[in-house]
Amino acid sequence: MGHLAPFLRLATLLSSHDCTITLITPTPTVSAAESHHLSTFFSDHPHIHRLHFPLNPSTATTPTEADDPFFIRWVQITQSLHLFSPLLSSLSPPLSAIFSDFAASMSFSHVSEALSIPYYVVFTSCARFLSLLASLPSLNVGGFDDDYVQIPDLPPLAKSILPRPFFNSNHFFTSFTLSNVQSLLKARGVFLNTFEEFETETITALNNGSVLSMKLPHVIPIGPLESFNVENGEKSEKGSDYLIWLDGQSDGSVVYISFGSRTSMSKEQIREIGNGLEKSGCAFFWVLKGSKVDKEDTAGIEEILGESFIKRTKDKGVAVKGWVEQEGILSHPAIGGFVSHCGWNSVMEAARHGVPLLAWPLHGDQKVNAEVVEKAGLGMWVREWGWGGERLVRGEEVGDKVREMMTDEKLRRRGREIGEEARKAFGEKWQLSEGSNGSH
Questions:
Q1: Closest CA relative to residue 336, chosen from 282, 279, 392
Q2: Strand locations in 43-133, DSSP E?
Q3: Of 222, 151, 215, 152, which Cα lies nearest the Cα of 186?
Q4: CA triplet 404, 408, 410: central angle to 5 degrees?
């Protein structure tokens, strides 16, 4: 979902500029949320064409890949990309540009050359993480002898915040990333769901040619991207119980908790978070996830949290399972803070609505994202908690930090400033242009 959502949002925006859009969707889907989002998207946007792309069965063999449905999907897509050229060459009208996820950029650079079609990379994380990936070929991947990684013209990155697969040069994710980095140089441009005011220093360094010995294509911040169903999806949910509950809360009084669609916390950690929320004294809206893949998430709320917790907090908070329209929640005036894994889509949604964050990274780019959030002044990050699941964080610690976030006036003020900057950046970049040519 972290990769799908920005593409749906970007497709909607390009379509609003009279471009003809074809969206390639690999099948079968991994999660119920993915299936629901795609069906809703194409129902709401019938003018956007859908091209189904059946994937070859995966040949993933390592334990890391075999145990993770999302790594399996990554391998499947990578092993099927050679089938794209005949699919794309048969489209009518013919393509004038290809927008590729960074994760598929190596294969699409070959397709682009074969079909003589320019291609652009859509990078679904922050500019700071892009600077790290762009520097990987010159770093001692797998070793990282020093405590910090030095990237030209930028502050060093602590080794402790790098994704764990980068410490194994034979890991699929590491080798896969390195191969895709090389193809960046062939792209016409790199689009990022971020904005200048949020990552000024990094965007400048990426565009002045100092990060790589060979100059990267132009990095173009286009965020914070607006939810594609900000009108349709949220209106359909206006009568839902949780939005009615939020309507009854005071402005800025509710802490929102969600750790994204990719990973679930252990049952023991979930119980400690519940204890912390209770101790914080804050009203809460909590989106729970009991297993990694939502199709397999059959445990009930009572089973996960315990009936006694539900009874004690029934007047203080709401806990739900399943997909929610997060942007609709973050835009609600009752929300005063967000406990988040710091997935980049969540960061940009919080920035767009000026909601302060308490960062708790779980994997991948999320510690780098948390550092960006902290530096921008949008939130706080407790480094001692480590990666999610690395150690059991007790309820007292959680409660103290939640209360600190919710009562920090400086943080709230900075959040409002960032929200204004974000909305201004988005509005300036996506003013409807005149004279669109209907290109595909």
A1: 282
A2: 49-54, 98-101, 119-123
A3: 215
A4: 150
Is 297 designated active site?
no
Of the listed 36, 44, 49, 101, which one is catalytic? Answer: 101
Distance CA 269, CA 389 (A): 8
Which residue bears the tokens 């004690």? 312
- For 233-268, how does the pLDDT look when each residue is reduced to its tens digit (9 = 90+)? 444 344 477 888 999 999 999 999 999 876 778 889
Residue with the two structure tokens 């079909």: 115
Size of the chain in residues: 440
* Annotated catalytic residue within 3, 37, 341, 353: 3
To 10 degrees, what angle do helices 395-407 and 267-280 make? Answer: 50
CA distance 4 to 80: 18
d(CA 70, CA 59) in angstroms, rounded, equals 14
CA distance 107 to 180: 8
Whether the link from the prior residue into 28 is cis, omega within 30° of 0, is yes
Per-residue pLDDT at 202: 95
| 100: DSSP letter | E
Structure tokens at 82: 């050679």
440 is catalytic: no
Q: Which of 74-78, 373-377, 430-434 has the highest mean pLDDT?
A: 373-377
> What crossing angle do the helices spanning 344-353 and 409-429 adopt, rounded to 10°?
100
Provide the 3-class DSSP secondary structure of residue 378. coil
87-96, pLDDT tens digit by residue? 888 888 889 9
Phi, psi of 86 (to 5 degrees): -65, -35
